[in-house]
Design goal:
Rossmann fold; 14% strand; seven-stranded mixed β-sheet; four-stranded parallel β-sheet; single chain
């Protein structure tokens, strides 16, 4: 790999970790073009940390203008991505550092979510200033702790595509008199599910942040069944779309998950549950359908998942513009930092109030766990409270209003057995006292 600048010129490396998100290639493009404008070679590293931690320096490519000039329009990643975790073993982290030095990489840009940022922070600590590292925050989950509620790149594109899919499902539900249970990707936070649900006006959205501590599967089923009964009792409708954040799976106890037939618990390289391999939508559909069958009132429920469909979508104009700023900002931090940024050997780049900011990795780590802090939905803020106002689900007022309570009890009755208002209240009222954000 010849270096036309001579052996004395340090290269800039770039790699991608974690799941795909719309806009990755725009970051690679902006970083490469700006880095080359500043006289540096840009080394694209394939498959995240996977090869570097094995001491393999062959899976790289020098990026030139023609490689990147028009890739900002496309989804995916020209460098691929992986969840390889170099922090599991000290020797693997050391191998990454050795590999980078062998490639004459003096500056490294990492593109990824909370796990990749954690790996970048640990590499920066181990490098002790010998390699400058800038992390570009990427995730459709929107769960990195950026200032001022700034979204992570890829989130807005994923939300827009998810919104279009749910809009179509809502019309299908109405036309066919059925319910859809749609699980939306989001490992630790409910931002994407809530964003899609709020924009589309989905019947209800359920997110992990509504619960303190572990969540029982029965509680989720009660919440969904209660919403379906309310929809029928007050509006005479037997259709709807419920969005459920997949992160609720991580709140279920291991005992409950292992008791579910067909569920196999597996984890990724960072120790996270492989949520997409555990079909929460099907589990909930099966459980809730059974309740209506037992009531001798079968109802149609179709289960869907939204996640992989939106991760590699072509980015919206918002994300195309946003990632160009982030890619430029990464080049600025690595190659021409200002006085304050120069004090840091590693940082996360973000944009706040139109200005580039560099956040020290230490600011972003949870002091108790030592891992990256997670930004969760604040159910006390207006963004959630407004969304909740337009959902159809059981609320305090339904139990305090005798007329509504009687209608709900009637909807829960069957030809063979009636349900009294008192019985309905005893069964479901806990939902509005134990779940946060209730109205």
């Amino acid at each position: 790999m010849a270096n036309p600048l001579g052996d004395g010129s340090e290269r800039v490396g770039v790699l991608v970790g974690g799941g795909p998100a719309p806009g990755i290639d725009g970051v690679i493009s902006a970083l490469t073009l700006e880095g080359r404008n500043r006289g540096r070679e840009i080394v694209g590293i394939y498959d995240g940390f996977q090869w570097l931690m094995a001491g393999d320096t062959d899976h790289v490519k020098l990026l030139d203008h023609d490689d990147v000039s028009r890739i900002h329009f496309q989804g995916g990643s020209i460098l691929n991505t992986s969840r390889a975790n170099p922090t599991k073993k000290a020797e693997q982290l050391e191998a990454v550092l050795t590999s980078l030095k062998k490639l004459r990489i003096g500056c490294l840009a990492t593109i990824g979510g909370d796990d990749t940022m954690f790996a970048a922070s640990q590499l920066a600590r181990r490098a002790a200033g010998s390699i400058r590292i800038c992390h570009v925050p990427k995730t459709i989950d929107n769960d990195l702790p950026l200032p001022g509620d700034i979204p992570t790149f890829g989130f807005e594109t994923a939300r827009q595509l998810g919104f279009s899919l749910v809009h179509n499902l809502m019309e299908d539900a109405r036309a066919t008199n059925r319910w859809y249970f749609v699980v939306v990707m989001g490992r630790s936070a409910g931002h994407l599910a809530l964003g899609i649900g709020k924009a589309s006006g989905a019947t209800l959205t359920v997110i992990p942040e509504e619960f303190d501590g572990p969540v029982r599967l029965e509680t989720l089923c009660d919440l969904l069944e209660g919403a379906m009964l309310k929809r029928k009792a007050l509006w005479g409708r037997r259709d709807g779309v419920a969005l459920i954040a997949e992160g609720l799976l991580e709140r279920l106890t291991a005992e409950e998950m292992t008791a579910i037939e067909g569920v196999r618990i597996t984890r990724d390289d960072y120790g996270h549950l492989r949520l997409a391999e555990m079909d929460l939508a099907f589990i909930l559909k099966t459980q809730v359908e059974r309740r209506f069958v037992e009531r001798k009132e079968p109802i149609g429920i179709t289960h869907k998942s939204i996640g992989y469909e939106v991760r590699c979508a072509p980015p919206l104009a918002f994300d195309c513009e946003y990632v160009r700023a982030l890619g430029y900002g990464a080049a600025e931090f690595l190659l021409n930092p200002g006085p304050e940024a120069a004090k840091l050997s590693g940082a996360l780049v973000c944009v706040e109030n139109g200005k580039l900011r560099y956040l020290n990795f230490d600011q972003l780590l949870d002091p108790e766990t030592g891992r990256t802090r997670v930004r969760r939905v604040d159910v006390a803020k207006p963004a959630y409270r407004i969304a909740r106002q337009y959902m159809i689900r059981l609320e305090r007022e339904d139990f305090d209003n005798r007329e509504k309570l009687s209608a709900l009890a009637a909807a829960a009755s069957t030809g063979a057995r009636s349900c009294t208002p008192e019985e309905f209240e005893k069964r479901f009222r806990y939902l509005v006292t134990e779940i946060r954000g209730g109205l």
